[in-house]
Amino acid sequence: MKTAFIIHGSNGSKDAHWYPWLSKELKKRGLRVFLFQFPIGKNQTLQNWLQTIHPIRNNLKDSILIGHSLGVPFILNVLNQWKVNAQAAFLVSGFSGHLEAEGEPNLDDFADKNFNWKKIKQNCDNFYVIHSDNDPYIPLERAKELAKNLGVDIILVKGGGHFLSQIGFKTFNLLLEKVNEVIDSKYHLVRS
Of the candidates 97, 74, 76, which has an alpha carbon nearest to the alpha carbon of residue 10? Predict the structure, then answer.
């Protein structure tokens, strides 16, 4: 059974935004979905987040990784530290490197690293960087830098902000379409 991991953002909730909807849609496609609540506040550290998924890390092989905001550098750390062999990583409103954000704890613990981009790319077959042209938290330049490091183009969404439910992102059809393309292509390859 194919597996997907959905990783929420900084000080986030697994029950917010488009995460529960996407989880439900992927389960309809027959995927096993892991949608964790990661530690937040002062407990929002890379080590604590890694410990949260460590018991099921064997399920990362051939999985689909979906990260939003801080979930993106978390996925980069997973791919940088563990032998994963993921099928695809969808990086939504993501960044790497130092980022100033008032009230968001320990961002640098996740993102301000010297990532081994070659190793990250060896640990995942496909990368999709999805960003908005008006994200108020993560400048577009940061997404361009991320995409360049991964050797992919940005999928740019006009007027998407930070893809939060407050501006209408309780669903995220574009993301679902892209994930479905990966699911369908993989199954097609298996059948051939």
Answer: 74
